[in-house]
Amino acid sequence: MKPKDYRSELEPVWCSGCGDYGVLKGLTQALADREVSPDKLAVISGIGCSSRLAGYTRSYSFNSIHGRALPIATGLKLARPELTTVVVGGDGDGFSIGLGHLPHAVRRNVPLTYAVLDNGVYGLTKGQASPTTEIEFKRDRGLAGPDERPLNPVLLVLSSGAGFVARTHAGNLPHLRAMFREALAYPGFAFVHVLAGCVTYQTPDYAETIYQRCDLLPESHDPTDFSRAVEVARGARFALGILYRRPPDRPPAVVAAELAGEAGVWPPIGATSASAFPGED
Ligand code: SF4
Description:
Layout: H1 20-33, E1 41-45, E2 60-63, H2 69-79, E3 84-90, H3 91-97, H4 102-108, E4 113-118, E5 121-122, E6 128-129, H5 135-141, H6 153-160, E7 164-169, H7 173-185, E8 190-195, H8 204-212, E9 214-216, H9 226-234, E10 238-245, H10 257-263
Parallel strand pairs: 1-2, 1-3, 3-4, 4-8, 7-8, 9-10
Antiparallel strand pairs: 5-6, 7-10
Helix pairs in contact: 1-7, 6-9
This protein binds iron/sulfur cluster (SF4).
Residues 14-15, 18, 20, 49, 119, 123-124, 198-201 line the site of iron/sulfur cluster.
């Protein structure tokens, strides 16, 4: 099979230059690399610009309900374990309305590849702030609402106990392809955080700033080292690569609640004391 064999007859309606085109290309390349037969492939998405991707693949595809792609995909995978099941959505879909499903999908560890195409903005509904919108971006765009710290998706998923956590950038096609290829091979829940540009609601300067903050993980990075993965995830820069890959026979490690709070998962998962919420004592 060739990458084009995984494309449906639908032509994408994304804005010209949208980062989602790169993700569609990288995903179809990785599916071809893995020799997944389209009749053994399901692509499930939520709602949003990036969720249109399900319809552009030749597979059992379902552009479903806002924030509900993970439970739908989990049910499908349990009923039809022979299907390679890919879940796709945006930062609003996955980290706002759909966030309640994420830690449960992680802890159930049903083999799904979950790609979040994170552009830090609600594109389909015309540019509102999402859970990953950075404060500077919000101020630049004059968006209403308080200056809230953005959520750190990679740290959130690590702290929930995920066995495979990778990050890539939609503008780096070979890297994108490699990350999807590895995620598809993981025998459990695999999370791929894709930094994707929105040419319509991000300024070119902002998109460039995100790109400039990306670094490839060094070859010396040990993806089985959970503490190191957490350390990398806490950094101000975006580390690209496989941050963490737990051997399937090893039980999950989780990060301490206080550490998660310091690093940007806010409020920290599992916070139980007032001291975890500065300014509220
Ligand atoms: Fe892509 Fe943004 Fe256009 Fe949506 S609005 S299709 S995210 S460029």
